[in-house]
Amino acid sequence: MGGRGSGRRSSYSGKAETNDSMPLDIRKITRKGLLVPGNGFSWQWLVNDRQVAGISIRVDFESMVLSYRMKSTGEVVEQRVQTQTSPCHLGGQRHWFTCPRCSKRVAVLYAPGRYFACRQCGGLGYATQNEGAGDRASTKTDKLRKRMGWEAGILNGDGAKPKGMHWKTYHRLKGRHDALVQVSLHYIGRKLGFLHKLLER
Ligand SMILES: [Zn+2]
């Protein structure tokens, strides 16, 4: 299962760095029925049932406000993100974020730093400066997650044992996964200032 508030698994492959940068998927929010103007709720990222990050979301008409409190200063960081819709093939409509930086229509935003942006905009800022053990741990973790049919990115939470996989195999993979998660968490904390602060909370 993904973080509290996540629904079906979505297939996703991308840079390990972005997977660890609090993926905020508007499809998951929509499926939870939370995308209603005037609605306010909290969104959390769990690792091993422990919250490692969380934000508050307030839904307005065609935008939402993402906010979190920095532990160090108590400062509340607020970011308004525009949303848009497109007609669905089978009727109804699909919801999208408008990337606050490049205005591209995207389903998922990431927060590699202080603010949320699309994968390209968010990834550019730090992908070059983090070619180290943390990234390798993330890549290995995602490989294991793929074998277990789990969504990439530890912040998307753990899934269940895949059907047909022996328990012994599952426990072995899960054990390796969990050890790598600890390594990743360490680097995520160092990489993302405010996430680190949330970890300390
Ligand atoms: Zn962008």
Could you state the oligomeric state of the chains shown? single chain
Sheet of most strands: 6 strands, antiparallel
Query: What is the average per-residue confidence, as pLDDT, rounded to a whole number?
Result: 78
Order of helices and strands: HEHEEEEEEEHHHH
- The side-by-side strand order for the widest beta sheet comes to 2-3-4-5-6-7
| Shape descriptor | globular
Spans of at least 5 consecutive residues with low confidence? 1-18, 124-130, 194-201
Got a strand count? 8
State the secondary-structure class. Answer: alpha+beta
What is the total number of structural domains? 1
CA gyration radius, whole angstroms: 17 Å
Measured by DSSP, the beta-strand proportion falls in 15-25%
Please tally the helical runs, counting DSSP H or I stretches of 4 or more residues: 6
Helix proportion range: 25-40%
Distance between the termini: 23 Å
The distinct ligands, each listed once, are:
zinc ion
Mind sketching the topology for me?
Blueprint: H1 16-19, E1 24-25, H2 26-31, E2 40-47, E3 50-60, E4 63-69, E5 76-87, E6 93-98, E7 105-106, E8 108-109, H3 119-127, H4 133-147, H5 167-191, H6 193-200
Antiparallel strand pairs: 1-8, 2-3, 3-4, 4-5, 5-6, 6-7
Bound molecules: zinc ion.
The site of zinc ion has 8 residues, from helix 3.
Question: How is this structure best described in words?
Answer:
The longest helix is centred in the last third of the chain and has 25 residues, at 167-191. The two termini are 23 Å apart. A hairpin with a 2-residue loop joins strand 2 and strand 3. The relative contact order is 0.19. Helix 4 packs antiparallel against helix 5 (167-191) and helix 5 (167-191) crosses helix 6. This protein has 201 residues and is of the alpha+beta class. Helices cover 33% and strands 25% of the residues. It has one domain (1-201). It is globular and about 50 Å long. Residues 99, 101-102, 104, 117-118, 120-121 line the site of zinc ion.
